[in-house]
């Protein structure tokens, strides 16, 4: 049996300006997701946690906390974009053109806007992308631009990080 490497993410050399990644996973937002993050962050806007209050609003129901929307869409993009990132460098032009509600399923896609070698870190490069989150009906709920520092191929710090087991996997019962 041959050891097959798992998906490790993309390295700087794998990105090309104009590439589009449709990130494969979608995630449905629950009431629990919304309440937990809203309370964790100390957000006191009742539109996120008071059903009676938000039912009287123009939306007629609670809005999902925008921090969840941002974090979820970012998370959905990690396996394709920043699994090998060293650090996020910034977010720009964040817009939320459509509300997100409990029960919505979000998907994400990203367009590579720019790539450049790092001036200060020869083991890395800077990638800039535009990412958008869409709900199950294809409505764009969030759009932002993000830049991150990502390792060059063969330069990642975790190449030998996986521990060696005492016994091979095929020998276990």
Could you explain the architecture of this structure?
- This protein has three helices and six strands; from the N terminus they run ββαααββββ.
- The chain has one domain: Thiol Ester Dehydrase, Chain A (Roll).
- Strand 5 and strand 6 form a beta hairpin.
- Strands 1, 2, 3, 4, 5 and 6 form a six-stranded antiparallel sheet that branches.
- The longest helix is centred in the middle third of the chain and has 12 residues.
- It has 173 residues and is of the alpha+beta class.
Uncertain parts: none
Helix percent reads: 10-25%
Structural class: alpha+beta
Count helical runs.
3
Shape summary: globular
- How many separate structural domains? 1
**What value does the average pLDDT take?**
92
Alpha carbon gyration radius: 20 Å
**CATH class descriptor name:** Alpha Beta
Task: Offer a quick outline of the entry.
With 173 residues, the protein is of the alpha+beta class. It is built from three helices and six strands.
What would the keywords be for this entry?
Thiol Ester Dehydrase, Chain A, alpha+beta, 173 residues, 6-stranded antiparallel beta sheet, 3 helices
SSE layout:
Elements: E1 20-22, E2 27-28, H1 31-40, H2 51-55, H3 66-77, E3 85-95, E4 105-117, E5 124-134, E6 140-151
Antiparallel strand pairs: 1-4, 2-4, 3-6, 4-5, 5-6
């Amino acid at each position: 049996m041959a050891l097959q490497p798992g998906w490790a993410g993309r390295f700087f050399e794998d990105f090309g300006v104009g590439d589009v990644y449709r990130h494969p996973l979608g995630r449905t937002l629950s009431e629990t997701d919304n309440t937990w993050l809203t309370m964790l962050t100390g957000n006191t806007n009742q539109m996120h946690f008071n059903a009676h209050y938000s039912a009287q609003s123009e939306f007629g129901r609670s809005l999902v906390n925008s921090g969840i929307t941002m974090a979820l869409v970012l998370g959905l993009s990690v396996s394709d974009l920043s699994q090998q990132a060293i650090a996020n460098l910034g977010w720009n032009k964040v817009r939320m053109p459509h509300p997100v509600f409990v029960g919505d399923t979000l998907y994400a896609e990203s367009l590579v806007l720019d790539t450049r070698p790092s001036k200060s870190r020869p083991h890395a490069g800077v990638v800039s992308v535009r990412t958008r989150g869409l709900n199950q009906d294809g409505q764009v709920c969030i759009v932002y631009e993000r830049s991150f520092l990502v390792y060059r191929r063969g330069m990642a710090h975790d190449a030998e990080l996986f521990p060696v087991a005492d016994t091979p996997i095929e020998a276990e019962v």
